[in-house]
């Protein structure tokens, strides 16, 4: 059972129209089958992460972007949760501090990129500076264009330095977002997650669609964007797991060689 992950990758140099990408796909399987397969992938992911950590020569950066209630936290819990926490760093970029605003917009980002052997997850990322800022008229189109160019160069620097970059846009429908926000209101255990500001952002749905489409044009061969159908959480988790696994296998980290001969060592 394998999904054709290339079908979800944004082609290099192509414009993006999100209305042409499905949000409710199931990959031809049902929830029970999908969750069972995801458990198999989780075991494989753990093994390949160990090899990456042991080799200590390469690193992996995973970028998660989505609208409110799009499933970033759920992806971290159910996909990234397969990894050993010792080898993972998760960064969440919120409103910049005064200190961060005193530097270029990538200053705070670069400090969170993964060192050799590590996996870093950006739960929101440097793309916030070409998304929220544009929708709320904090920057003009010219500045946004410059920032997108800087982002391409920044990601190229990372890949040239041995960091693979995977970027996932969790593509949720407006109806599904409504259900998830309502569930936060109705469920006492989830009420803490509800933010009235999410409704203000939801009212700007079309504006966010436009800026996301432009951000997705930064997909490159070395730092691709994937548009992940996210209405069904189990399928979202399955597809992202497979893409990460394929990437780790392509990186092909190796356990370091050693001169030790186990037969010559006796443990008293």
UniProtKB/TrEMBL annotation:
<dbReference type="GO" id="GO:0008976">
    <property type="term" value="F:polyphosphate kinase activity"/>
</dbReference>
<dbReference type="GO" id="GO:0006797">
    <property type="term" value="P:polyphosphate metabolic process"/>
</dbReference>
<keyword id="KW-0808">Transferase</keyword>
<feature type="domain" description="Polyphosphate kinase-2-related">
    <location>
        <begin position="30"/>
        <end position="254"/>
    </location>
</feature>
<protein>
    <recommendedName>
        <fullName>Polyphosphate kinase-2-related domain-containing protein</fullName>
    </recommendedName>
</protein>
<dbReference type="InterPro" id="IPR022300">
    <property type="entry name" value="PPK2-rel_1"/>
</dbReference>
<dbReference type="InterPro" id="IPR016898">
    <property type="entry name" value="Polyphosphate_phosphotransfera"/>
</dbReference>
<dbReference type="InterPro" id="IPR027417">
    <property type="entry name" value="P-loop_NTPase"/>
</dbReference>
<dbReference type="InterPro" id="IPR022488">
    <property type="entry name" value="PPK2-related"/>
</dbReference>
<keyword id="KW-0418">Kinase</keyword>
<dbReference type="Pfam" id="PF03976">
    <property type="entry name" value="PPK2"/>
</dbReference>
